[in-house]
Amino acid sequence: MSEVQVNDDGGKKKGRQKKQVLRVDFTPMVDMNMLLITFFMFSTTLLKPQVMNISMPSKEKAEEGSGTEFRASTALTILLGDENDIYYYEGMPTEADWNDTAYLKRTTYNEDGIRAVLMKKNDGTYQKIQELKEKRSKGTISEQFFTEKVTEIQTEANKNLKIAPNVLIKPTDNSSYKNMVDALDEMLVCNIGFYQIGELTDGDRYLLYLKSNKTKPDYLTDAQKKDLGIN
Amino acid sequence: MGKVKVKKQSTFIDMTAMSDVTVLLLTFFMLTSTFMQKEPITVNTPASVSEVKVPETNSVTILVDKDGKIFLAMDNPAELQRTTEAVAAHYNVTFTPAQQNAIRKLTSFGVPIRDLPAYLDKTVEKQDAYVQEQLKIPNNPRIGIPNGGSENITGDDATAANKIDPNNEFKVWIESATKGKAIGEVKLAIKADKTTDYKVVKKVISDLRDLRKNEYLLVTNLRTASSD
Lengths: 231, 228
Known about the structure:
The structure holds two protein chains of two kinds. By secondary structure, chain A is α/β, with parallel strands linked by helices. Chain A has helices at 27-43, 111-121, 123-138, 143-161, 177-189, 202-211, 222-228; strands at residues 3-8, 18-23, 50-55, 75-80, 86-90, 105-107, 166-171, 194-197. In chain A, the strands form two sheets. A five-stranded mixed sheet of chain A has the order 6-5-4-7-8, with helices on one face. A two-stranded antiparallel sheet of chain A has the order 1-2. The longest helix of chain A is centred in the middle third of the chain and has 19 residues, at 143-161. Chain B is of the alpha/beta class. Chain B has one domain (47-227). Chain B is 36% helix and 14% strand. Chain B has a six-stranded mixed sheet with strand order 1-7-6-3-4-5. In chain B, 33% of the residues are buried. The interface between A and B is large, with 50 and 60 residues.
């Protein structure tokens, strides 16, 4: 292939044709190309990082009755503590709950931890959305149809059936960013439609403090520490 | 004794086909590659199952390292220059023409605006060295975009511009980067280290919410079985 046959019958010489074979050695060329390929392979980022969309509520106060309130009956509050601790409670705590150490339940980030809790709560919509997800991956429904349908199911479940939980994620100051992303990730995995990142209330702080057998006053605010007489 | 005749055989291997293949591969890699953005700080993002990819254009990446130092990266050099000049004008900082050219070459940066002209005078290697050196000093106010100041400048009638605290350059940067843009035109991506304390991220988000920026992208990497 790399041979070029040159018919050298350059006019002047008469007689026998002289055949010359011209061979080009491509080995250095291949060497150089391989080097360049290696360079591009290492410097390229074929795998782009993923992103997670989140929307935070606006800081302006929402008007009452605008449909953005959380419903206490289906609320599930997840508290992210330090050292990868995770706790949750259902509904809104009443007076009697404040001193009940069992009210706040401790769980884990594992599959049989918080995910099991969420799955149980979101059973009605989880199955429906999972079916849609399967259809989407098979390509029988379009992305747009999928998004519309999911929103429809989630809104329906939230408004009429009251079976889908409203999840409130409340990370404490010393929980890590990974904890927050993990919690948000569980929302995606469990197809939770309505969730929000919120601020810890004084009550939440007290519950966490109580749950740690009063060993972690860091959960409390300065004012609370003063009230309880801890320095 | 009869001599054994060794038949001369050519060991020449034709490399043309091989060369064809390598050139093809090379072309493929050259066309598909997007170079890794150099980042002054290493940020290990947490994993998630989200399948949404990073947007191609017009994004402002907010890098937050373990200690809460903020760095900014913008993918559009023209926007970066416009934003930098707006921020500089806000703080009465001026650039020489050479420095203005250097702005476009910045990948990600995190120095207070007053230090920026001096920072731009350095070569790229010197800039890196400077950042590394400054990062070694704990609680160093001269590295990272300052985002201090009070969070309490609020009020329903206060406009976003009025809320800006002079000590909070971060807000000025974001405000300048999104000024005159439609909502959602500029995507704000938060790229924080997984060990970053939530309070640091909360401060960043709180500042953004003050500016009525309520939608963000959290940069994560894909969750695989091993990263669980």
